[in-house]
């Protein structure tokens, strides 16, 4: 249930893998609590009238520099509702997760970040499943290490992850 303070929004995220089954994650922090950091998948809020698939392709391009055609996105593979604060504003966000692959793991300087992303994203890095499972800070979704087994390979089943609070 949404409280009056929470801003509801639809979002799309991308589970982006390279040829070695490493996943690309971003590391962020709260500018008001810099000691709090976390890893997360590329993605974000949908624009007006934008489909989740189109939003996932756009967010992947903006946040990672990888230009992934909509038709190359698999899924959605997961859905979840996330309750979180970002820049002191509370959100309740329904998220659609898509799967994509790239042939190389070369850093892409073409990423176009917003001012808020420049202020909150500290790193973009490829990780093995073992590394994801051994993070000493939060990762979102919370069970990402275990959930990745459901998409490597994907069995065609859309999984509803429920609601997570960050």
Explain how this protein is built.
With 166 residues, the chain is an alpha/beta fold. It has one domain (7-165): Nucleoside Triphosphate Pyrophosphohydrolase (Alpha-Beta Complex), CATH 3.90.79. It is built from four helices and nine strands; from the N terminus they run E-E-E-E-H-E-E-H-E-H-E-H-E. A five-stranded mixed beta sheet has the order 4-1-6-5-9. A four-stranded mixed beta sheet has the order 7-2-3-8.
What distinguishing features does this structure have?
17% helix, 4-stranded mixed sheet, alpha/beta, 5-stranded mixed sheet, Nucleoside Triphosphate Pyrophosphohydrolase, 166 residues, globular
Structure summarized in a few sentences:
17% of the residues lie in helices and 44% in strands.
Task: Tell me which oligomeric state these chains represent.
Answer: single chain
- Estimate what percentage of residues fall within beta strands: 35-45%
Strands, total number? 9
Strand order of the largest sheet: 4-1-6-5-9
Give the class-level CATH name: Alpha Beta
Q: Structural class given helices, strands, pairing?
A: alpha/beta
Number of helices: 4
Low-confidence stretches are none
Average predicted local confidence, pLDDT: 92
What about the largest sheet? 5 strands, mixed
Please state the CA-atom Rg, rounded to the nearest Å.
Answer: 15 Å
**Architecture, according to CATH?**
Alpha-Beta Complex
Q: Give the % helix.
A: 10-25%
Reading the helices and strands in chain order gives EEEEHEEHEHEHE
Q: Could you state the CATH homologous superfamily?
A: Nucleoside Triphosphate Pyrophosphohydrolase
Shape: globular
Spatial separation of the terminal alpha carbons: 16 Å
Give the count of structural domains: 1
And the CATH topology? Nucleoside Triphosphate Pyrophosphohydrolase
């Amino acid at each position: 249930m949404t409280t009056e303070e929470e801003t509801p929004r639809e979002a799309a995220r991308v589970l982006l893998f390279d040829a070695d089954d490493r996943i690309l994650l971003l590391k962020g922090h709260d500018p008001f609590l810099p000691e709090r950091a976390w890893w997360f998948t590329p993605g974000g809020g949908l624009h007006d009238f934008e489909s989740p698939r189109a939003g996932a392709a756009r967010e992947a391009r903006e946040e990672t520099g990888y230009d992934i055609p909509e038709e190359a996105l698999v899924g959605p593979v997961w859905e979840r509702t996330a309750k979180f604060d970002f820049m002191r504003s509370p959100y309740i966000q329904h998220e659609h997760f898509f799967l994509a692959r790239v042939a190389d793991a070369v850093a892409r300087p073409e990423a176009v970040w917003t001012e808020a992303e420049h202020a909150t994203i500290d790193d973009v890095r490829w990780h093995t499943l073992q590394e994801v499972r051994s993070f000493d800070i939060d990762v979102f979704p919370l069970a990402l290490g275990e959930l990745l087994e459901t998409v490597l390979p994907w069995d065609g089943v859309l999984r509803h992850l429920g609601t997570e609070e960050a």
